[in-house]
Amino acid sequence: MPHCERRSLVYFVLLTVFLYAFLTGCGDEDEELNIPPAPRELEHTLAKDTLSLRWQEAEYAETYRIYRGTQVDGDFQTIGTSGIPVYDDAQITRGSTYVYKITGVSDEGVEGDPSAPYQVSIPLDKPCCDVNPTTISFQDTEEGNILTIKNTGTGILEWEIQNVPEWLDLAQTSGQTGEEFPSEIQLSISERVLRLNETYAETLIIASNDPDNPERTVNVIFSSSAKVLIVQDLRSGFPIPGALLEIEGKGISDTVTTDASGVYAFQPASDGQYTISASGSGYMPKTETIDTLLEDEFEIALKPIPKVIGTIKGGIYPFNSPAYVAFSNNGNLAYVTNQQGNNVSVIDASSDRILRTIDVGQEPLGLVVNPRTSQLYVVNHGDNTVSVIDTNINRVKGDPIQVGNLPIHAAVNDFGTSLYVVNSGENTVSVIKLALLSRETQRISVGRNPYGVALSFDSRNLFVTNASDDSVSVVSTITGQVDRVVPVGNSPRDIAYVFTKDLDASYVLISNFLSDNLVVFDADQMSVEIHELGNFPIGLAVVSEPDDSYTAYASIRGENLVRIFDLATMQVVDESIRVGSSPGGIAAHPDGHKIYVVNSDENSISVLGY
């Protein structure tokens, strides 16, 4: 072989070996690189003017790079790095929107893919003005009082006190208040303008940049002998401006109204007892006796009248001739019997949304919750049984309980051990001992066509309405015998027992369907009062109020109304509540803030609230 050819062959072999080594080495380096994955699960918190980002730690990431833009598909700039999956962005502006991306960087300096864009809108500053107290009363003194202005929102609250009378001195009438420290303004009476034996009252206006409440009011009163009446909402505690006050006693007979702060200051002719009758639109009237010898300031709390705040309709789970309703013991759920659907609707009481239906027996009507357990008892009118539902899992538990002919309603004693079911087809009450495998142990004869049933607070007496006898049977649960029969109105239907803590008395309320009235039976005095309600009253529900008084609500089927009976005054309230067509069953939430009214003809529930 010639010398030149051998040399070319040597060069070719060397070149081949070099290329193989180079390519093989590059492949090994690529396999050894650790590329961090895109960070996930971004979240943030906002404190003052700093936005804190957090994310899930990415594998192989030694550090992280933080990118920020203003649009998801726009440009991004690097704003910082972090050695941990946390980054505080202090360069933000209120009212702006930012988009963030995070990448992980390995210890070799390799940057991985970015996270999905994470968009954050920074809200504008929103100051909120809170003043305390809302009534300042100088009684027999000119010493200073403190008015506190607090910013419970964000940013700077700018405020100004307006409508300041000449007899009042303020240490400060305007200012700015941050989020941390409230402003305290001292008020005092100006001796230059006060005249002896006169009452001074004025409403200060605190104007501010609070967007929701640009004006707050503070009532200031000075009198050596003035008495202050404050009228407020029993449930919310808010003042009631424009409330009507009728004041009688000690030479005074006057009708006045409260100011914008729900306050009225009056100067009695002499100290002693006065009768104050308070009323207001949307509230139940109330009468109280005050003694000005004992106090100088008096609060009168009026019970608000609920309004229709919503309507529940079927949707995926439609009602089918709904009849009656009951709330669970904790108030989280409500249950409605569908007479033609042979099932029970389950409602989320917080959202007023139907969750599902539960199949039960034929033509379910009344239903009652065991006060000691999670069991719900559903009376099946069409097959003479009672279905038991476990409200923890919302399923029927075991076989139905056999009872008498054509049952309608049921009641459970306070101990949760006995169930009483009225059988309208045979004029009896079935007694079921729940501890004995839920079996019927006795049937008690009552009047004709029994309908409603209620127990006394000690469960010693059972009250049963007899629709065809126009009476109520009072049954001893100890002896199982009818102790007495009380005549009531024409065709009594629903019944409710109330033990009033404020009056220390026991009452049984009965709706008389054909005589259009409400019977109030005093179980202690054995007396009966009759109050007109409207055409065809049927359902009853009783609410325990925050002041330990009670209010009864009656569904008026013939007028599509709910009427109100105030047990504190023993009067039917003038105002009524219009609901859906043919209202029947009615139940109150355990805490009284919501009432469900079943509208049978339109397959809906009217939700009453405040």
User: Could you name the CATH homologous superfamily of the largest domain?
Assistant: YVTN repeat-like/Quinoprotein amine dehydrogenase
Overall mean pLDDT stands at: 90
Spatially, the strands of the biggest sheet line up as 9-16-15-11-13
Number of helices: 1
Alpha-beta content class: mainly beta
Strand content: over 45%
Please identify, by name, the CATH architecture of the largest domain. Answer: 7 Propeller
Largest sheet descriptor: 5 strands, mixed
Output the CATH class name of the largest domain: Mainly Beta
What's the structural domain tally? Answer: 4
- Tell me how many strands there are: 53
Q: What is the molecular shape?
A: flat
Residue runs with pLDDT of under 50 for 5 or more positions: 1-5, 20-30
CATH topology of the largest domain: Methylamine Dehydrogenase, Chain H
Return Rg in Å: 37 Å
Alpha-carbon distance between the termini? Answer: 110 Å
Q: What share of the residues lie within helices? A: under 10%
Short note summarizing the structure:
With 610 residues, the chain is mainly β.
What does this structure look like?
This protein has 610 residues and is mainly beta. The chain folds into four domains: 1-29; 40-121, Immunoglobulin-like, CATH 2.60.40; 129-302, Immunoglobulin-like, CATH 2.60.40.10; 314-497 and 506-536, Methylamine Dehydrogenase, Chain H (7 Propeller), CATH 2.130.10.10. Helices cover 5% and strands 52% of the residues. The strands form 13 sheets. A five-stranded mixed sheet has the order 9-16-15-11-13, with no helix packed on it. It is flat, with a radius of gyration of 37 Å. Residues 1-5 and 20-30 have low confidence and may be disordered.
